[in-house]
Amino acid sequence: MTGSASPGRGKGRTVAAPWLGPGWDPSGDLAALQQEMQRLFETLLGLGPGRSQPAETVWAPPMDVCESPAAVRVLIELPGLKQEQIGIEVIEGTLRIRGERPPDPRFAKEQLLRLERRSGPFLRTLTLPASVDADQIRASYRDGLLEIRLPKRSDAVPRVIAVETR
Questions:
Q1: With contact defined as beta carbons under 8 Å apart, do 42 and 25 qualify?
Q2: Looking at the 3D structure of the chain, how many domains does it have?
Q3: Which range marks the domain in which residue 40 is found?
Q4: How far apart are CA 141 and CA 83, in angstroms?
């Protein structure tokens, strides 16, 4: 990939141009950036989703969302949780995934030198596209990975119409 010379950086130095090829979706990138910034501020300020007061502990497990012509699929990493500690509900067109990871009892606070594995309550929300059939949503949990399948309504799935010759 070629780049353009950086002003004020001397000759011979280049800056890589951003990838703008197939598959690049600026609106998707902006939505992901907005969600990540909100998550960052909530974490830094200790604010839980929808709260104005600092929360004791707040964390948000990583979430991937992908879409095919027939369904939307959500994957959330929840290592160390039991199936009973995860709640999923649909309220007014919003998918809500909540749960709580208890602190690891093997480590007392005074023993900790570094704490990177988060514990406490979490809540992730996702506004559902109008094409999703909320009555057909299914979820499975295996090896710390929660997968939620959100099938689209049959009238929302693209249908190929054959052109006949006469």
A1: no
A2: 2
A3: 25-58
A4: 7
Encode pLDDT of 10-64 as tens digits: 455 555 555 555 555 666 667 777 777 877 776 666 555 554 444 444 688 999 9
Tell me how far the alpha carbon of residue 47 is from its chain's centroid.
18
Six token digits for residue 131: 């094409």
Q: Which two tokens stand for residue 71?
A: 């369904």
Alpha carbon distance 132, 123 (integer Å): 21
Tokens of 126: 């996702």
Here the tokens at position 52 are 């104005």
Sequence-separated (6 or more) residues with CB below 8 Å from residue 129: 67, 72, 152
- 66 token code pair: 């992908």
Under a CB-based contact definition with an 8 Å cutoff, are residues 85 and 61 in contact?
Answer: no
Instruction: Note whether 82 and 93 are same-domain residues.
Output: yes
**Residue 130, domain CATH:** 2.60.40.790
Whether residues 37 and 63 fall in one domain: no
- Answering whether pTM is above 0.85, one says no
Residue 11 lies in a domain: no
